[in-house]
Amino acid sequence: MTSTRAGDPAMSHAPGGFPGLPGLPGLAGLPGIPELSGLAGLGADGERAALAADAGDRTCRRAEFLVPPAPAGARHPETAYFAGNSLGLQPRATRDAISAVLDDWAVHAVEGHHRAAHPWLPYHAELREDAAALVGALPEETVVMNSLTVNLHLMMASFYRPAGERTRIVIEDHAFSSDSYAVRSQAVHHGLDPDETVVRLRPRPGEDCLRTEDVVDHLAREGHRTALVLLGGVNYLTGEFLDIPAITAAGRAAGCVVGWDLAHAAGNVPLALHDWDVDFAAWCSYKYLNGGPGAVAGCFVHRRHVTDPALPRLAGWWSTEQATRFEMRPELVPVPTADAWQISNPPILAMAPVRISLRMFAETGMAALRERSMALTGYLERLLGEVVRDRPLEIVTPADPARRGAQLSLRVTRGTAADLATRLHEAHGVLADVRRPDVIRLAPVPMYSTFHDCWRAADALAREVSPA
Ligand SMILES: *Cc1c(COP(=O)(O)O)cnc(C)c1O
User: Which PANTHER family match (predicted)?
Assistant: First the structure.
């Protein structure tokens, strides 16, 4: 595998900002979101302050979710759930939405395609606007379909077109395994050597996260040999939020196609995919989006591509226009929207939870969620700062709030992360997520996590990890 350090440190310049994202740093103005300065630290006073902050917080929608009970014997009755970046909690409305589909099927059978409360034939279209708002896209640029890695493959079928010396695919060395396997298999699919074709960008020695300027510099030097840049918007391991507009601009300036895996970004950070000129993106719906295990995923294709009939696509009957679909013609009529990448008719029972969860995100809005998220994550970071100071723990997520979402990853430098996570759960009801061997991920999810959850996580770590 071609491994490379992402850039030449001598060429460094200030990382790009976030043009076009309104109101990111502000932590004022939303109902009940407390000022960080007003919250105390660890200890009994700190716990009281956290509970008081929660009592006044009207942006949090925890009451609309099913929060698992803590294991018997834990210090609190409810789980402090920090694994919403792995599998989001179940909205209370989800069960009824699934039941309603079953009822429609029972009562209407085949006529449910037209007569169901939410008719099945245009069902995916009902999710379009909310999905578009979530990722900052035009409605015709988004579609909810399949699962994440399948969507990445469908996107690469259209957008990974190796030719001449431009054959490489750039990913990050800390890419999620599925993305690594997907791009390697695409290289093989095109008759190329995956070890030569896939370039993995590594952070500088001694650092955990990529620097924007190093990625940009790599693309300036190697872009002419790069067909596709496919990076994670928020890295699953470190929680780093890459500068999507700056990297997209650099890749496109070098003539590359730039796609983003937004598994850990969708529902976590504000996105503006259309304005950022991203070529394509895909995300899953079971992490921050609370769509349930294996939930139907989302996909974005920029308008300049959806209106291009010459682009090669893998097709099926759901790729053709709805009006003539049942004429069963031998050739399809292309639709000038992301729907053109749909192949099969969608699984309505599985779409119902995603419809519910996308509605919730549209109601609250990513700007409000981001504001609450920065308060929660900033609070957790401050508490963890007290804990890690004299303990064998290290925060690997960027300290700059603009460079991260709702996740703080901790490196455990004594004992194993798995043992520590087990103790946090069994004794304290704090459910974190382990990435072996040494990382614990804590995601205070803005939709339902509380300030008291954050206090409990820091308190549990302080009790379970003895000072070095
Ligand atoms: C969660 C995640 C996946 C999972 O892929 P599925 O196709 O949904 O099973 C893939 N890539 C990234 C970056 C992820 O975080």
Answer: KYNURENINASE
Confidence of residue 54 (pLDDT cuts 50, 70, 90): very high
Name beta bridge partners: 42. none
Domains in the chain, please, with CATH? 25-88+366-464 (3.90.1150.10), 97-364 (3.40.640.10)
> Residue 31 has what pLDDT?
65
- Residue 405's φ and ψ, nearest 5 degrees, are -110, -130
147 lines ligand 1 (CB under 6 A): yes
Cβ atoms of 168 and 256 closer than 8 Å: no
Distances from the Cα of 195 to the Cα of 3, 103, 184, 187, 192, angstroms: 9, 51, 8, 9, 9
Q: pLDDT tens digits, residue range 232-286?
A: 999 999 999 999 999 999 999 999 999 999 999 999 999 999 999 999 999 999 9
Averaged pLDDT of the chain: 92
Q: Which tokens in the block code for residue 166?
A: 């431009």
pLDDT at 334: 87
The pLDDT, as a whole number, for residue 29 is 57
How many other CB atoms sit within 10 Å of the CB of residue 163? 8
Separation between Cα atoms, residue 35 and residue 248, nearest integer Å: 34
Q: What are phi and psi of 231, to 5 degrees?
A: -120, 160
Q: How many CB atoms lie within 10 A of CB 462?
A: 18
User: Cis peptide leading into 437, omega within 30 of 0?
Assistant: yes
Q: What is the pLDDT of residues 196-206, one digit of tens each?
A: 999 999 999 99
Closest CA to 28 of 37, 19, 20: 37
Ligand 1 within 6 A of 2 CB?
no
Assign residue 209 a region (left: φ > 0; alpha: ψ between -120 and 50; beta: otherwise). Answer: beta
Whether 345 shows a pLDDT value over 70: the answer reads yes
> Environment class of residue 138 by beta-carbon count within 10 Å: exposed (0-12), middle (13-18) or buried (19+)?
middle
Pocket-testing residue among 147, 171, 174, 236, ligand 1, by greatest number of atoms within 8 A of Cβ: 236
Q: Which of 3, 323, 345, 304 is nearest to 143 (CA)?
A: 345
How far apart are alpha carbons 172 and 180 in whole angstroms?
9
> 261 CB less than 6 Å from ligand 1?
yes
What's the token pair of residue 105? 């099927």
